[in-house]
Write a structure and sequence with these properties.
Order of helices and strands: HHHHHHHHHHHHHH
Number of helices: 14
Radius of gyration: 20 Å
Structural class: mainly alpha
Helix content: over 70%
Length: 333
């Protein structure tokens, strides 16, 4: 659910223009298939959380962080990767990346207590628009008119998904939760998008100086500390009830497996199209909730989710087109 990790791995992906002999239909289609499968698994992870009625959703993150550490530690040890990076500045950025990525996952889990999976994912996927905005402010990147327009449409979509009562009226609120709980869930989902956007900008700032496993190991360790601290401050148990254990572990396994498949997909295909495919989590989220949990999305929610989804895809495609143009100019020069 914390979809920003794949941006780091894109730094190690192959340049298709410079390696024409390695391009074939088979690996390209395999990359797209893995991306769809990753989105499917990540959506199923959220469904497992929703199905664990009465469980503390953030407990799943404990299992996820532990699993991520267990499969990253041997890789780092085998490749003799320095977890402290090339310099102190890189360490600071990796710490920030770990904290923001951890809070993004935490806020998504907390949002699921009050909102449907489809609504939470729809709000969360405003983060590509926020990445462009933050990159313009922090990294001094150029912000095109297309980006500005897509960002504006994204926030229009956000209004449709959240359905504020002062615009749509009280009748459009979810009957299963109070207006206060719904508002809290919306705030958590927006905070998750902000944290994910900051994490993505930090990863972009780090660039190719570090191996993707270096930043992910910080996420695993810091995420575990943050989740344990949140559970302690809220007075909730670190260990879930036996009846919830299977669903929480299954959710963690699916989330980690989805992250691995997404990383492999980006190593076989450009990051832009893969990022676009990953937004299909929103569609899978609404679909699985309807089939498995019987949750019917509202018409306004579907309109808003479609706008956010289309804008996320458009921004990813625009980024891919710009990257190809830059590469061709470099090759021609």
């Amino acid at each position: 659910m914390t979809q920003t990790n794949f941006l780091q791995s894109s730094n190690t992906s192959l340049d298709e223009d410079n390696n024409p002999k390695k391009n074939s239909v088979r690996p390209s289609m395999l990359g797209f298939f893995l991306a769809v499968l990753a989105a499917l698994l990540q959506a199923l992870s959220g469904i497992c959380l929703k199905a664990a009625l009465g469980a503390e959703k953030t407990q799943m993150l404990i299992f996820r962080c532990i699993m991520q550490y267990l499969y990253l530690a041997p890789v780092i040890q085998y490749k003799k990767i320095d977890v402290f990076g090339p310099d102190r500045k890189s360490v600071c950025f990796m710490i920030i990346r770990g904290v923001t990525g951890s809070f993004a996952g935490l806020f998504v889990a907390m949002s699921l207590d009050s909102l449907s999976l489809g609504t939470t994912l729809s709000i969360f996927y405003i983060y590509p628009a926020l990445v462009g905005l933050f990159a313009c402010i922090c990294l001094k990147e150029n912000c095109s008119l297309v980006q500005i327009l897509l960002t504006a449409i994204t926030f229009v979509g956000l209004l449709f998904v959240t359905e504020p009562s002062f615009i749509f009226g009280e009748d459009n609120l979810d009957d299963q939760v109070t207006s206060g709980a719904r508002l809290l869930g919306i705030i958590f989902a927006i905070l998750a998008a902000v944290m994910a956007a900051i994490s993505s900008v930090v990863i972009r700032k780090l660039g190719a100086r570090i191996h993707f496993s270096q930043s992910l190991i910080y996420y695993a360790v810091e995420g575990l500390i943050i989740v344990l601290l949140q559970l302690h401050l809220s007075g909730k148990s670190f260990i879930p009830c036996r009846q919830h254990l299977l669903m929480l572990v299954l959710s963690a396994v699916q989330a980690n497996l989805g992250q691995i498949l997404l990383t492999v997909a980006i190593q076989r295909e450009r990051a832009g199209p893969i990022a676009s495919i990953n937004t299909s989590q929103v569609v899978f989220g609404f679909l699985f909730e309807y089939i498995i949990l019987g949750v019917v999305p509202t018409a306004y929610g579907c309109i808003g989710a479609s706008l956010i989804l289309l804008c996320a895809v458009a921004q990813s495609l625009e980024s891919t087109v710009k990257s190809r143009i830059r590469n061709r100019k470099k090759n021609d020069g």
